[in-house]
Fold this sequence. Notes:
Elements: E1 14-15, E2 18-21, E3 24-27, E4 34-39, H1 40-45, H2 53-59, H3 70-75, E5 78-81, H4 84-90, H5 95-111, E6 132-137, E7 155-157, E8 163-168, H6 185-203
Antiparallel strand pairs: 1-2, 2-3, 4-6, 5-6, 7-8
Helix pairs in contact: 4-5
Amino acid sequence: MRFTAEGVPCMVGDRHGKTKIHGVWMQQLTPAPMYMVFDEKVRKAGSIGKSLACWDITHGNLYNWSADNLREVDKGWIKQANTIRDLAALIDLAPDVLEATITRYNGFSKDGKDLDYGRLPTYMAPLETPPYFAMELTPSFINTQGGPRRNKDAQVIGLDNKPIPRLYSAGELGSIYSYNYNAGGNIGECFAFGRIAGRNAAREVPVLLELI
């Protein structure tokens, strides 16, 4: 049921959404649907879905999440049940599997050692205070470092390893930084490859397409 060290990005094996699998850095494997499961203590601890202040400034206050998460329970965004087995039925999971997963996780929390994913003890607490809750999560990306390859002339490279005529790219899409997320690096890449792409695109000979 668990598939990562929840809640600690960039600290335990995760590098901005990338994980090393069999020695190769690749995108974190995220099953869908997936759920955040928590108990009454976590529900009372504070807003689960509150956005950061910087997000509100740049995108506007898209939704004012309740401080106790009860409004979202009423909306049905967060499922609630008195037992783990009943919660499993609400989210279409095998009750035995969910119960065994939480029992194992609770043991790791109490021992202070996550044998499955190495989650830090300070980020672990047993889930044992009913009622229990589950909120469906959606996979997302923080940026678009990946994408089509480009060469030094900012030309996009096709599957045949040759430049695709008249197609250029700059910035994060096809970034030269690969899986590394660089603070300010993408802006510099936009400037550098944007300038290269613009110059080379300007040298292209116009092509007139005959309309049929």
